[in-house]
Design brief:
Elements (H helix, E strand, L loop, with lengths): L1 H22 L7 E13 L4 E19 L9 E16 L17 E15 L8 E18 L2 E18 L2 E18 L8 E21 L1
Antiparallel strand pairs: 1-2, 1-8, 2-3, 3-4, 4-5, 5-6, 6-7, 7-8
């Protein structure tokens, strides 16, 4: 009898899952997004643009907090996203154009790590297909940023921002994001390996913009 009761309870829970999902199509509280696209870095004082041939990103929304009770008009939900953000970019300019001492094919690179915070809106407009959702978001992403170019390393705290649009189907989604930010970077000289990196006292303002696509996994 105990086995039959257990099987009955399990069967009831399995049958109830589609009903629960339909009543609350915005149940996911976490997501991981993988980004790929292009990026442009501008040295503001010189108006010197450098394009990247690759931009890779990882964003993990650790918490997606619903900002209200229930579901608005049975189709709309507002959330606050809190997570971590990592970005890597490699630029097209070769190091031989910047320093003739080193005859190597090495390209400038940029890495960023930060915290993302901002609102998102989710809508499931089709009553018979609640698993299909559309979303839009704005994230403020304060980041530690480092740009490595030839024998110099530029480092700064950079307040990045991003806006995005996406479409989710059950546990997966796709979308597009525009990202931008600017800061004054300290310059560190790393040419002498024995002395290590030292601050040159110079500051350079860089502006960064990126357009990239993403694939999202919801949990």
């Amino acid at each position: 009898m105990n086995i039959k009761k257990t099987l009955t309870v399990i069967l009831g829970l399995v049958l109830a899952l589609p009903i629960c999902a339909e009543e609350n199509p915005f149940m996911h509280k976490r997501s991981v997004s993988l980004f790929i696209g292009g990026q442009t870095k501008t040295e503001v004082d010189k108006d010197d643009d450098v394009d990247s041939n690759i931009n890779l990103g990882l964003q993990a929304n650790l918490f997606q907090i619903k900002l209200h009770k229930g579901i608005i008009e049975d189709m709309l939900c507002f959330k606050m996203d809190i997570g971590l953000d990592f970005t890597y970019a490699r630029y097209n300019r070769r190091t031989t154009e910047l320093n003739t001492k080193h005859d190597i094919d090495w390209r400038p690179q940029q890495v960023e790590a930060g915290v993302s915070l901002g609102p998102s809106v989710h809508i499931a407009p089709f009553e018979m297909r609640r698993e299909l959702q559309f979303m839009a978001y704005y994230h403020f992403v304060p980041s530690a940023s480092a740009h490595i170019e030839d024998t110099n390393v530029y480092a700064a705290f950079c307040p990045m921002q991003s806006v995005g649009l996406g479409m989710n189907w059950k546990l997966m989604g796709i979308g597009f994001e525009h990202r931008w930010g600017s800061a004054k970077y300290k310059t560190y000289d790393i040419e002498d390996k024995n002395e290590g990196a030292h601050d040159t006292g110079e500051k350079t303002k860089f502006k960064t913009t990126a357009d990239r696509f993403y694939i999202r996994f919801n949990f």
